[in-house]
Each structure stands twice: as C-alpha cells, then as structure tokens.
C-alpha cells in the first residue's frame, strides 16, 4: 500500500484508474480501528483497485479543497471521477466492501469473496460493548493478565461520547467533556493490553458455545463473555420518525444542537435526559418547545427549576407526537392532547427526542433471564443465568444507571472472572 502527498494526488488518484484513498491522522482512534481492515482488504482487491493513504495533517490544503473535514475519510475514484459514498468516522469493513464491489464486475466481486478464509481467535475473556462498563472490565482484566478481547459495533466510549459535559465523575474538579472522558478510558484500557475489534459487524453470538462471529468471517472464542452492550434511545412510534432520523430528527443534543443556532426546535420528553439536554440546546436555539406526556416534568427538581426560568423554553403538557413530516425544509410535528384527543401541528427547524432507553439484547436471543423491562438479571458478581456469561452496565436490571455504576459493574465482573480463571 502506497502513501502519497498532495503533489501526487493528480497522478496517483485522478489519473490512477480505480482508487480508494484514506485520509488519516495521527493520534486518531477511528484511524487505528480502520487500519487493519483497510490493509486486509487491499490484499484482496489490489489487482483491481489501488489502495492509497495520505496523511491529512500534512496535506490540509488538499483535504480542505476536497471538503474532507474528519479523519479517517475514505474517497473512492474511478476514471477520474469520485464514485460511491464517502466513508468517515467508525468505518465498518462491510461498508468498504460494498463500495469496492460497486466499482468492479459482479463476477469479480464474487471471486474475491471466495478467497476470504474464515479465521478463529481465542481469548480467555471476550467483552461485547466498549462503553464505560466494558472498558473498565477490560482494564481490570488486562491488569490481572487475563487475555481479553473487546468488541463493539461502534467506536469505544458508548453514550458518554455524545454527552456534552460530565460533572459528577469522581476525580475531576471541573466538568469533563464526555468525548474526552470516554477517550481517556479507552486509551487506558488499550494501552494496558486489551485487544480491540471495534466498528465491526457482529454476525452471530452463541452464548452457550461462547463464540462470536464478526464481519462474517472471524470467529472469536472465549472462556468467559461479558455483555456490556448498553442501551439505545426509545422511539416514539409516530409516523415518519424512522424516515426522518438524521434528516430533521435527532437523539443527540451534543452531536446536533450546534446546527440549530438561532433556530427553533421541538423536544419530545420531560424526564432527566430531556430536561438536561434542553438546557444544553438552549445555548444554540432561539426557541424550544417541549412536548411531554404527563402534567408535569419528571426530572430532578433542581434541573426543572433551572429550565423553567429559561426564557427560550416553553412546555406543552399531556401531549404526544403522532406524526413527523418535513415540508419545505421545516419539520411539522402533529401532536395529540391525551385528554381531549385534539390534534395540533407544531412547526420547527428540528426535533430532538429524549424519551428513555431500551436494552440492546437483540443479539442474545431469549436464553438470558431478564426483568419485566428486558434488562439482564445478574447476581452480585454480575453473573447471568448462563454459566460463564456476565452482564455489566446499563443493560443490567438495576435501579440507577450512571457512568459510576457502570464502571463499578465492570470492576466487579472483571475481579470475579480473574479469580475464577486463576
């Protein structure tokens, strides 16, 4: 694989035939996650497609001219023209393959896939999920000299990555940016020796055999499995929500509030997350209308009192959304009064939804014991009802879900596993 500079872009990329170019940076975890996938695929496709790398930090002018704003970013070229979709951030192997296959004949793509040989890796412990709970478990296990692999469908950090500031994590006098706190956790665990396989597709999980297949070809075998897959945002179920996700509807204030400077938004929800995130959004938006199903907000009193004194915020109580539409660039939200059944339409520039979370257990079938809400039941050592399978963090059945409770779970599971293995 060749590394080029901006001076070689014309000859190597524009006039290079079929090319995939990786803009990478140093000290870039997503770049590190991409590197082995990019290298492995280059060995499979190099007869048909040229694989190139370029150091973005030393070639900023070129990157800016191409509107490459993040690392890594993959660009695909064919006969002088950029083709396929650009890929950036936590890039999955399957996404790269999809683009590469679109650049060559179908028969050739099938022949290349026939060359892929299944592989098997063995570890003492396998962790599914790289949020605070999984990262802490990985840290304690590697410090106990337990050979450990950590798998995640995204990049390390979990939901903390999308949290604006964390003010209640012990050891920090000043509030910490969520992305920085999760980055430090990840780097600490990685440097300790835990093997990372992140931004992958989890094809299959067999808890009885303690096997996990990723990216359709690599089998990870372990003696113990720690489930740390966390939770995902609940959906309202209103018409148009799924179709408009990322196109006017967001579930992450930290990610998207900055795009609504001096604009109007609607927030769905009234619990702790909704109230806290609305306070953050108010730093950008000119007007916020909250829609809540109950007759009062259900967050902690201090947060409510602060929010209700904010002149940008108003609340519509005892209403729920029934339909989301986007017309002429504006979001139209049809809401229904739960007492009168009267329906009205709100018009805004965007919608944020914060109505709670659901456990990410779809990969595990119905063998795990769960509570009435689908959270995994564990004992005091974080063991589940299946031998050698542990669960930690937000996915477990417990009263409080905080970063500190997640890292505590990871600590307990790792210590219990290390003692059993030794």
Q: What does the largest sheet look like? A: 7 strands, mixed
The CATH top-level class label of the largest domain: Alpha Beta
Average pLDDT number: 94
- CATH topology heading of the largest domain: FAD/NAD(P)-binding domain
Tell me the radius of gyration. 24 Å
Global shape: globular
> Unreliable runs, pLDDT <50, ≥5 residues?
none
Going by helix content, strand content and strand pairing, the class is: alpha/beta
Layout of SSEs?
Blueprint: E1 2-4, H1 9-14, E2 18-24, H2 29-45, E3 50-55, H3 60-65, E4 73-78, E5 81-88, H4 93-102, H5 106-114, E6 119-128, H6 132-143, E7 148-152, E8 165-166, E9 176-177, H7 178-192, E10 195-198, E11 202-206, E12 211-214, E13 218-227, E14 231-233, E15 249-250, H8 253-256, E16 264-268, H9 272-281, E17 287-291, H10 301-308, E18 313-316, E19 319-327, E20 330-337, E21 343-348, E22 350-353, E23 357-359, E24 389-391, H11 403-421
Parallel strand pairs: 1-3, 2-3, 6-7, 6-13, 7-10, 13-24, 15-22, 16-17, 16-22, 17-18
Antiparallel strand pairs: 2-4, 4-5, 8-9, 11-12, 12-13, 14-23, 19-20, 20-21
Describe the 3D structure:
- With 422 residues, the protein is an alpha/beta fold.
- The protein has three domains: 2-114, Glutaredoxin (3-Layer(aba) Sandwich), CATH 3.40.30; 119-232 and 358-421, FAD/NAD(P)-binding domain, CATH 3.50.50; 249-353, FAD/NAD(P)-binding domain, CATH 3.50.50.60.
- The protein has helices at residues 9-14, 29-45, 60-65, 93-102, 106-114, 132-143, 178-192, 253-256, 272-281, 301-308, 403-421, and strands at residues 2-4, 18-24, 50-55, 73-78, 81-88, 119-128, 148-152, 165-166, 176-177, 195-198, 202-206, 211-214, 218-227, 231-233, 249-250, 264-268, 287-291, 313-316, 319-327, 330-337, 343-348, 350-353, 357-359, 389-391.
- Strands 6, 7, 10, 11, 12, 13 and 24 form a seven-stranded mixed β-sheet that branches. The chain has a five-stranded mixed β-sheet with strand order 1-3-2-4-5. Strands 15-22-16-17-18 form a five-stranded parallel β-sheet, covered by helices on one side.
- Strand 12 (211-214) and strand 13 form a beta hairpin.
- Helix 6 runs parallel beside helix 7 (178-192) and helix 9 (272-281) runs parallel beside helix 10 (301-308).
- The radius of gyration is 24 Å and the shape is globular.
- The chain starts with a strand and ends with a helix.
């Amino acid at each position: 694989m060749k590394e080029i500079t901006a001076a070689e872009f014309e000859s190597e990329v524009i006039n290079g035939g079929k090319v995939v170019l990786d803009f990478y940076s140093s000290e870039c975890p997503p770049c590190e996650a991409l590197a082995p996938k990019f290298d492995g695929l280059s060995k499979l496709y190099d007869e048909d497609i040229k694989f190139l790398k370029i150091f973005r930090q030393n070639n900023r002018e070129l990157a800016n001219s191409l509107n490459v704003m993040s690392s890594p970013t993959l660009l695909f070229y064919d006969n002088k023209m950029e083709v396929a979709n650009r890929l950036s951030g936590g890039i999955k192997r399957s996404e790269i393959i999809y683009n590469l296959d679109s650049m060559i004949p179908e028969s050739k793509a099938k022949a290349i896939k026939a060359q892929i040989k299944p592989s098997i890796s063995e570890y003492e412990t396998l962790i599914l999920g790289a949020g605070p709970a999984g990262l802490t478990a990985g840290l304690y296990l590697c410090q106990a000299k337990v050979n450990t692999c950590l798998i995640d469908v995204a990049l390390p950090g979990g939901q903390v990555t999308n949290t604006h500031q964390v003010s209640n994590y012990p050891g920090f006098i000043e509030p910490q940016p969520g992305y920085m706190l999760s980055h430090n956790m990840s780097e600490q665990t990685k440097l300790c020796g835990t093997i990372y396989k992140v931004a992958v597709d989890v094809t299959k999980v067999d808890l009885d055999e303690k096997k996990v297949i990723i990216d359709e070809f690599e089998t990870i075998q372990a003696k113990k499995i720690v489930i740390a897959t966390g939770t995902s945002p609940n959906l309202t179920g209103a018409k148009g929500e799924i179709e408009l996700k990322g196109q006017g509807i967001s579930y992450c204030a930290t990610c998207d509030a900055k795009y609504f400077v001096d604009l109007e938004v609607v927030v769905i929800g009234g619990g702790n997350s909704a109230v806290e995130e609305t306070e953050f959004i108010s730093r950008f938006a000119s007007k916020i209308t909250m829609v809540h199903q109950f007759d009062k907000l259900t967050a902690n009193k201090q947060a409510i009192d602060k929010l209700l004194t904010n002149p940008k915020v108003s609340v519509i109580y005892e209403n729920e959304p029934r339909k989301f539409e986007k017309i002429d660039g504006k979001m139209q939200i049809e809401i229904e009064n739960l007492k009168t059944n009267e329906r009205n339409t709100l018009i805004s520039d965007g919608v944020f939804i914060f109505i709670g979370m659901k456990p990410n257990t779809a990969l595990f079938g119905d063998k795990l014991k769960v509570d009435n809400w689908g959270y995994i039941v564990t004992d005091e050592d974080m063991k589940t009802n299946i031998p050698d399978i542990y669960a930690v963090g937000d996915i477990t059945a417990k009263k409080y879900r905080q970063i500190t409770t997640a890292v505590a779970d990871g600590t307990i599971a790792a210590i219990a596993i290390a003692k059993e293995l030794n």
